[in-house]
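Treating backbone geometry as a discrete language has practical consequences that deserve illustration. No coordinates are needed to read the tokens, only the vocabulary itself. For completeness, the protein is quoted in full, as a sequence line and a line of structure tokens:
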Amino acid sequence: MTTRGWKNGWYVVPMEVTFRDIDYFGHVNNAVYFSYFEWARTQLWFELTGSRQPGDLGFIVARAECDFRQQIGMEEIDVRVRIAEMRNTSMDFVSEIWKDNGRQLAATGKVVVVLFDWKTGTKMPIPDALRKKFDELQS
């Protein structure tokens, strides 16, 4: 199994598909792909911020999309995620799911998030420190 961490500009999160992710047809249900993207995105966020608490997720999802390319069964997968673009208050997380030891691309996705202040209930600008930390970790 792949090791979690940075590889070729992507933050890689290895996972094992569990029985509960499989539908009647014996493959991962389409909705579950978004859970895989979510887990990898959360792990990258924790890497960027140094936090490990769910309450420290300082963003909300504004849009999510997925292109399904290959079926996934009960197997090991790698979910790769990176930030493609940062704007004033939002950023794009792009993801890929690879199977067969990184030989088959199973899905690609993009999730747009908006940084959010949970206390005030308003969006907030992306701090320069977060931009800098991402640049340092990605290189």
